[in-house]
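Hi W.,

Here's what went into the run:
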Amino acid sequence: MDEKLVDVYDEVLQRNPGETEFHQAVREVLDSLGPVVAKHPQYTDAAVIRRLCEPERQIIFRVPWVDDAGQVQLNRGFRVEFNSALGPYKGGLRFHPSVNLGIVKFLGYEQIFKNSLTGLPIGGAKGGSDFDPKGRSEGEVMRFCQAFMTELYRHIGEYTDVPAGDIGVGGREIGYLFGQYKRITNRYESGVLTGKGLAWGGSRVRTEATGFGTVFFVDEILKTRKESLDGKQVVVSGSGNVAMYAIAKVQQLGGTVVACSDSGGYIVDESGIDLATVQEIKEERRARISTYVESHPRARYVEGHSVWQVPCDIALPCATQNELDGADARALVGNGCSIVAEGANMPCTPEAVRVFSEAGVVFAPGKAANAGGVATSALEMQQNASRDSWTFEHTEERLGEIMRRIHDRCLTTADEYGSPGNYVAGANIAGFTQVADAMLALGVI
Ligand code: NDP
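Here's what came out:
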């Protein structure tokens, strides 16, 4: 790390003790910014980088609700409004038992640079709760969402902060959250949440956008080598929203997805994962991926997290943070994998990223590769503001253009700052400079 940034990092460690994921995310960005501060001293002089590492606002609240047995349950809600230099705060809500302030801060911090990279007018935020929707009835999920929004509503708005989904928050949860916001405020304010259903203000392609966008990004990488997805073997981790639509797009573009997973284990189907079955298991039955083999006897199920042992040309981690470590990276390299693109946020550990870099594996970081989700959320806001609704084809075309632009911007910026072909440096620097310039222009606020 550049010596001008060491103090900034030390301050982050001191002010945010124990928040290891947040430290990791900050370090990854600061490690890229050496050549930037050398060229542009104004960013350190005006404490722009220090300010960027401190959220503008952090909200923590109690979420009490009543379960089906009549017992009072208690969860904790979070919203970290990290940076609004480029537009209203924007970022998803995560419902998962592992959610804590450090995780929300790492996600909010990453979101600043990702949103900047889209070129659309959105700031960075993230939120969520340690509520676990698994095993909860429909009624319990609805009551929890209503209780969560009963506090959150006062902090959000279409010009203030616009949440969306993330792990554990899909169309069903966004529906309950939007319903409660509408009830409390007596306003049909479509632009306050994204990821809405098509019948009530949602955008076509939003559901598919993160997975599709990640694969569009991979396609751009392949084009730089005059290759395509046709005939490529792909492994995807997870089987949630991002994973499912990554699988769909790989298949549309001629690749074969041979494995996917959930937190229990993974399935391998050499003839290609049957997406309709995965969707039925995950979206309709809300069951475990292990049940895939019941209808596909030629496939096998392996318990545990080592989906990265399955040989592939391209790996798409689409589940959660730090799910792919150094040992997994070495297994991928050993099996000839040559591209890794993060559909999830920070799924690869710093050691894994080092292994890829040393082995010459092309590595696309999440803040660039999975930006298609939030970009399409911004397109949803655009449609809501103009009370319009675009076709699937038009929206997917816009998404494709945005992903191409992000890809090219990463490469051009990496070149400009002396790290040709380095998507991590390109994404961090391009994302950073736009926010930093806006912060300079807006004064010390
Ligand atoms: P979902 O809840 O739809 O799916 C998450 C998937 O990851 C599930 O298969 C889940 O398995 C698995 N998973 C979750 N936690 C763990 C864990 N601790 N260990 C192993 N597997 C786990 O979430 P999304 O698909 O929406 O999100 C996936 C990732 O993509 C996250 O990192 C998210 O931040 C990121 N992302 C999502 C965007 C979106 O638009 N949804 C946008 C940009 C990034 P199980 O069901 O067993 O828990």
